[in-house]
């Protein structure tokens, strides 16, 4: 099920985040799995900008998986990926986790993951 909160924020300015978009675009061999809930205020505040960043970076839909969790934070993959907080975004390359964003980070998801991917 697609998360409505992943709908790209129409006012997010890709030009203002050019470095982030460039890094996300360059890493075209990774997948993004996003755990969230449309009912979650952190997801509603953070995921639309992340969706806009992925769109600006031309990340194909088949590399993005949305996982909706319930209010008890239960859903597919929650135990396997040790998901405690939402949103959580796991970035994988060849089945190996290479980066993870958890809702408590003090920078936006796209910037945080771009920094992790670029290091």
Structure description:
This is Thioredoxin family protein. Residues 3-119 form the Thioredoxin domain. It comes from Halocatena salina. The longest helix is centred in the middle third of the chain and has 16 residues, at 41-56. The protein has helices spanning 18-26, 41-56, 109-118; strands spanning 31-36, 64-68, 88-93, 96-102. It has three helices and four strands; from the N terminus they run H-E-H-E-E-E-H. Helix content is 29%, strand content 20%. It has one domain (4-118): Glutaredoxin. Strands 2-1-3-4 form a four-stranded mixed sheet, with helices on one face. The chain has 119 residues and is of the alpha+beta class. It is globular.
Sum this structure up briefly.
With 119 residues, the chain is an alpha+beta fold.
What attributes does this structure have?
119 residues, alpha+beta, 4-stranded mixed sheet, 3 helices, 29% helix, Thioredoxin family protein, Thioredoxin-like_sf, Thioredoxin_domain
